[in-house]
Amino acid sequence: METQIKTQSTVEAHSEMRTKCLVYTRVMGYHRPVESFNIGKKGEHQQRTHFDEKREK
User: Fold this and answer.
1) Percentage of the residues of the chain whose pLDDT score is greater than 70
2) Where is this region: Disordered (predicted)?
3) Phi/psi zone of residue 45: left (φ > 0), alpha (ψ -120 to 50 degrees), beta?
4) From start to end of 1-57, where are the E strands?
């Protein structure tokens, strides 16, 4: 718990230096930012399983 509080205070102290990170995903042949999805599509995106080629060998 104490580590979480330290991390949170560090993040808050440096919040002015942070930049927003956009996550894109491929949908129907083109790339699209996840933040533009509706609530149902965002939930579907969170439930996806990601393929890791290194682990599958």
Assistant:
1) 89
2) 36-57
3) alpha
4) 24-27, 30-33
